[in-house]
Every structure is written in C-alpha cells, then in structure tokens.
Amino acid sequence: MEELKKELEKLSKAYVDTPENEEKILIPFVKRLLELPMKERRKLLPVIRDLQWIKSKFAGFSSETTCSAARAHFLSAVQFVCANKREMDMAYHVKFDMLCKLLPLYYPTWLTDFINDDKTWFNFDLNYEQLMQLMDMGYLKEIAPSRIAHVLPWITRIRNKEPKGNDTFNSELLLKRDITLKEHIWTIFEYESSIGYQDDCAKEAYKKGVTARDESISAALYRFSLDGHLDRERLLKATLATFHRSFKKDMAGWFAGFFETLQPTTGELLSLQEEMMQIFTSSYTKPVNVMLQQLKNIASEEGFRYQEFIERATTLFFSSPKNSLLTIYALFEKIVAQHPEMKEPCCIILCQLFLKKDESLQKKAANFISKYGDASSSNLQETLQSYQPEMFQSVYVILSSFKPQPAEEAHEPDASVGETVRICREDNPIPFPANKEDFLFQLSRLFDMEESWEIETTIAAIIAFHPQLDKEDLNRMEPVFQRAATIVANGWEPYEDLLATFLLEYQRLWAQKDTSNTGILRNMFTRLEERLKGVDENRGAYDERSFKRLADWKPGYSNATCFTPIKQLWLNVIRKIKGGNAFPLLSTPTHTPAYVQATELIRRLAVYQKAGTKPCPWDFQLAIARCAMEDKEEAIATARQLLQDEYLHLSLFLLDENTLTEPPYNHPTAWVAAGLVKAPETEFEAFKSFACNTLPHNYLAGDYEWKEVKPKEKSYETDRRLLQLEFYKWHTYAECNSHQLWQEHLIINSKYNMDDSRYMEPLLCCFPNRPEPLIAQIITCYMTFGTPQEDSKRTLACTLRMLLSFHCPLKEMSLLLLSGSLLFVDKTVRSYAAELWIEGVSTGRINNHQVGEILARLIQMELAPLKRFTTQVYESMYKRSTFHNQQLEALLTEFIGGLPDKPVTGLKQLLELYLELLTINHSKVTDEQLLQRLQEWGTNSNLKKVTTSLNNL
C-alpha cells in the first residue's frame, strides 16, 4: 500500500491532461485500484486529500492553494472509486466524459442520491442534457425535481469554447425532449433556481447581437404559451403560485416580471383576480406592485371585483412604498368613477395616507376627499378628526370645507424630560442563583443565554457553588461539558469558543479527581484531542487548531487581543476554584445591563481587604469601569466604615468629585480605570509615571479626532468608511505596551474579532460608563456607506441598542456613531439611532447642537443621501412631544445652517419639514447665518417657494 501511495503521488503530480494520457495512465491506474477491496482503496483518501492542496511557507506564514486542473482531474477519478458519498468532495472535477468511462468500471450505490443532493457544493458539474443521458443509459434511477430546477435554466445556453468568447443561446433546445415542457419545466415554479441570472445572460446576448432574437426562457415560455406548446392558463396560475413558496427576493422579482412578460389579456386578468389579490400578503414589494398595475388595467371593466379589492387593499397602506400607494389611489379614482356609491368608503380608507410622513401623499388623499367626500357626513368628519394630529399644515387648507382646524399640540409634558434616570432600580436587579439546584439549571443553559450578564453571573456562581458539588452533580453537568467540547471542535465564533474553553478548563479540575475505572472525563478529553487532530489533518493549515488550555487560547485567524482581558479574568476564576478561594468577583454586575452598584462594590472590596488578599487587576479594573455613579454619599459612607488605606483612598477618589489622588499606588491599573470613569478628559499627573500608562491619554479615553473622508478616487468607489483610525502604526507599540489595561487591548483590535453582535454586547458591557474607545473601533470597522455587509448592520444595531441601555453622557465618538447611523442605509440601524436621540435629549445625555454640526459635515462629505435622514425624522422623531419638537427644531437649525452653499439633493424636503416644524412650534427663523443661507437658496426655482415661506413666518 505504501508503494501505491507513492505511485499515486508521483502520477498525479506529473499528470498532463490529454486523451492519450487518460487512456494510457489514468484509466489503467483506476482499473488496478478496482482489483483491491474497498477497505484497501480507502487508505488512499488521506493522500488524495493532501495532494488537493499546494502548501507554501514564507516569512513565518503558511498558505494553501488548490492544485492544478490536471492533477484535480486525476485525483477526482481516483477518489470516485475510493470514497463514499460524504467523502466525495472532488466530484466537480469529474467531467461527463470521464464519468461515462468510469461508470462501466465501477457503479457506486450512492450515485443517484449524491447527484440529487442539490445542497452540496461538491456535486458533479453536469448539465440538464447530461443528466438525461445518464437516465437514458440506466445509471440514474431518477432525477429529483429540485435538481432539475437547479440545472434546467441553463438548458438553452451553448458555451463558447473560446475563453473570451460570448456564449450563445437557443430556446429551441427546450423542445428537444417532450418531457422537458411536459413535466420538467414546472419544477422552476416550485424550487429555487438561477432562472433570473440565466434570463439576464440570454437577454444581454440578444442586446449585443449574439442571438437574432430574445432566447431567454421567459421570452421562450411566452412564445410557447401562444403556439400551444404550453397550457397558458396553467402557466399564469403557476406563476402566481410562486409568490406563496417563500422564494428569495430576486426569484420573486423575476416571476413578477415574468407575469408582465406573459401579457395577460383582460379576460385572463378578470379570471385570475382572486389569485392576484392573494399576493397582497407578499413580503416583497415588486409582486404587489405588478399585481396592482395589472388590476389597474381592468378596474373599469364590468367584472372587476371592486368591493373585494377595497377590502384587501386596506392592509397595503401600512407597509407599501409610495409607488404602490399611488397606484392604489389611481385605482380608487377609477372605482368611484364607475361606482359612485363607493365614494365615502374610499375616502375613509384613504385617510390612512395621513399616517404617512409624506406631504405629497397626504395632499393626494386630501384632494381625493375634497373632490369626492361629503362634507356633511359625520362618519367622514369623525375619521378626519382622528387623523388630524398627523396632518401637514398644507392639508388643512385643502380640507377647509370639512372644517378641520390645525391641531394644537396637546402633548402632556413629558415627566421624564430632564429627570435623572436611576441606574440601579427595583426593576433591573440581576438575580444570583439562590441554591445549588438553581445554579445547575443556570449552568445547563450557559450556551443558550441571550444576555451577557447571565453568562457572567453563571461564571461567578461557579466560584460560590463549586465547594458544594459532588459526583452526582458532576453527572448532571456532563451534557453542558459535552456541548463545550463540540463547540471547541466545530465552532468558529471567538467569544463562544473562549467560553467553551473556559468551561472545559473548569472540567479539568474534575477530571483530576476522576478516579473511577472508566475515567469518563479523561476519555472525553482524549477523544476531543483526537477529533481536533483529525480536523487539522483533513482541512489543512487554515484550520490548524488544537485543544489548547485556557491560558494558551487565542482567536483564530487573527493576533488581535480584545478578548485577552476576558480570558485573564476567567483564568483568575479557575485559579480561585483550584485554590479553594471563594471570594466573589468584584466585577459581576448587580443590575442590568452591566452595572455594579457602588455600595456592593465597596462591600466586595472589603472582603479582600479583610483577608489581606489582592483582587485580580483585570477584575478590579472592570468593576470600577462598571461602577454605577449614583448614590455616592451612601457609598462614600460605606467606604469610610469598611475600608482603609489605599482601598479607601481609591474609592473616595472614584466617588467624590473633590477628592484627589493619594499614594500609595499598589493598584496602578485600578487608579487609571478610576480616572477614566471619574474624569476621562483629565490626564492625572500622578498616573503619568505608572508602568501601565504607556499610550497617549486620548487613546485610553477614546477622544479621537476625525477628519473628512478623502474624495472618491474612482467613480465606482462606493464603500467609504466614516472614521479611519491608524491601527497599523500601533503595531510598533505592541512590544512597549504594558498590556495591563483593557483599553490597550481594544486599540490594537482587529475587525475579524468583532464581526458579530454575538460578542459585541459582552465587549460593550465592559464599558457602560465610558464606551468611547470601543465605539471608535466599531465606527472604523463597520460604519461603511454604500453596500455594508450584514454583520455591519447587526453590529451597529447592537451597539446603538446597548447605548440606549447605558446611562453615560454621549461624547464625540458616540455622537458620531449616532449621526452616521441616522444616515445609514439600513432602516433598522436608523430606527435605533432615532430612538437613541429621543432618549438622549430627554435625559440630557446628548449635545443636540453637536449632533447637528456632525450631520452637516457628513452631508458635506457626500457619504449618504439627505433623504434618508428626512424620512427617518418623519417616521420616528417628528411629533413625539412638544419638547422633542423643540429639540428637533434646534437640531435642524444647526444642521441646515451647516449645509453646503450649493443645494444638495433632497434639500427641498428637509426645508419643508423645517417649515412644518416651525409652524407647529410657533417659531420663526432667527439665526442670521441660516437667514442668509435661505436668501441664497431662494434664487433656486425649486427652493423659492419653501424659502419664501420660511422667511415670511
């Protein structure tokens, strides 16, 4: 066997893919292998796996690239006769001609199941005709409908053998086999496929003149529905049925366009009204838009089911875009023209448009009501009255005959405005397990916990309850230990992997006591290590991981260190348990989301002082960073009663504004942490000589300067970052950094350790009083304008949600995040930002004028369209309360005054909003700079009307 392995390596590396070599070298070698039993042939699989990759090493790094096409061709044929279904990962390289030569020699029992598995990435590269030929030859028992749908869209493509040549298309190939149009074509209406992409390719070929006519499948099916090859009624109904199959957005969009391509007649549309109206429940807008347009074509016909349409269209007002609402409006116009008795029902339903923060839509509704409504109708009057607070000022003029008066703002004063919100309240304490049973249940949920504080409380509870556990309890904990082992072997998320490694490290403490004959725990570790070694051998250098001890753990694919302090904290937990030290962690939060009550921190610190033991520096820093800065007098009194010497001085420095630093400084990292919480802008003289204080103070405080983004260098450049921190230069500081402060590990962080909200929350929970350093990292890595990745959207949403739950003042980095998020492409992110602004101005956490300045700078950078901000204000920030309207006016005054001299796109809508706001607030423009700007913009014909109205207030 060893000689055979060497021969395989030699032949595959030297193989040149020609028909002659295939017949003289490859096929004879396969025949020789088939003389051996399968058990012997399988021994070649590890060799094949290694030969698939070409490994290289340079400058201390290793890399892998795929082998040549000729070698892959040779190895895939050998693998075909050696592997089972699960191991056949080179099938893509087995071409149809080779497969036809191999099958008479060896027919694997798994072939049909393997080919029909449309979920795998490693299937044979076979097209529809080749699969049908395998059926004809008897090698395939059946072809799954999902597999047919996967390959059928490409049936019309004829590949160009020239590398740079254009593929051509021939829709007549659909007629080659009767079964294609009789049965197989309907699979694309039932299963996901690439039909949309194929159609685009065929249409592009027609535009380029490669084909004489449109050979796309959509055009072909339309022709076939007219000449009798396809049942046209079935085709129309099958198309409408696709919108109920949970297809992805692009597929649903293609079928919506295909329905238009079929050009249904008036009679066909009238017969399909029920199916078309059912599509109003679709989550995608294009199918709904198409159905509305088609129904519009028959709205004047006698058979149109107008009453049913009005009833079903009611649900569309809440979620449909503006173009759909305008189509509904046009339909209502046609309905009332044909059926006068429907005037009032249509008027009442159209009142829902007054909920839209779009003046043109509201005017449409008002004009409709003014034209068709009955001013004496009490029902209509009551309906209008209920929507009155949402109406624009211009709408009142149109509806003057209905006597609506501009609604006086009747908002009750917001009791929460200006009030200091308590951090530690009766409704947010974090429960600690009351007994051993509660602890064991909580531990069993460790990897399913949603909140960061749940995980931290569970880890702290391990210290408290470990002395009470016995062997029976250990057996109950085994499932969570096994789950941790699975995560270490298969998981990829750094935080979850770190948590699992910690739990297995705790399990080792039990394994050392496992004196039973079976040695269950020791066997588990042995199996885990063997499994991981197998992973390394099978997957190669990029997955070279082994089961490391917690002290050796580091995140994969990166040398970033943002998890190092957490690892050090949990190592301290292991040392506590191993040494029988049951002292509590200082940093375990007492109130959600991550605060430690000041008096409780003092009491915990007193336990260490009484025992003459120093707390872990990482634990001490984190506890101070989380200290709830309220009830300071009570905490100071408790400190004077329970603490002495340095612990007392440090606590007074943290809690009392007038207390200065006082030596000794035996806990320098804790002093620095206290300074960053107490007065982050202040660089204390006493701390400058500390060994841990090696970085510029603004980096520790997160007080970064941000410059305007560079202009676009290329026209197609879309993704532009809001903040560019120069991380790479900090690599030179890596050796001289003290690596003793949490903030140091954030500064040299990498995006690849923060690309999921799963562990963004635990990181943010380390800094509830001063999140600025981490916020700067998040802006740099995730605040991209253009087409951000999904992980960027999730991370920004998580960050804004956490800032909402914190109680700290928002400084420049947080305000930059807030302002950028109000202009961000993702609606969820913008909504969170709007809620943060509403909460922040109510509690005095936000400098409103600074937000306006930052927004103006961002618009000047041309990072995002102004319309995003205006739309979000209408939807979430406008008319929340009298106070918020006043604050919004101040924000817009600063914002508009800082906009460029040349009017930007969307300025008219923003000025109309500003005018509406000033009218409601009974205010007028008084800012001299803004008045001058309005006068300049008044020369623009598009802005003249609104600027004149603003000046005349």
- What portion of residues is helical? 40-55%
Using DSSP, what is the number of strands?
A: 6
Characterize the biggest β-sheet: 2 strands, antiparallel
Mean pLDDT: 87
Shape: flat
Structural class: mainly alpha
Regions with pLDDT < 50 over 5+ consecutive residues? 409-413, 535-546, 748-754
Q: In angstroms, what is the radius of gyration?
A: 35 Å
Query: Strand sequence of the main sheet, in spatial order?
Result: 1-2
Separation of termini? Answer: 94 Å
Tally of helical runs: 47
Report the β-strand fraction as a percent range. Answer: under 5%
Folded structure, characterized:
By secondary structure, this protein is mainly alpha-helical. It contains 47 helices and 6 strands. The strands form 3 sheets. The protein has a two-stranded antiparallel sheet with strand order 1-2. Strand 1 and strand 2 (61-66) form a beta hairpin. Helix 31 packs parallel to helix 34 and helix 32 packs antiparallel against helix 33 (645-655). The chain is flat. It starts with a helix and ends with a helix.
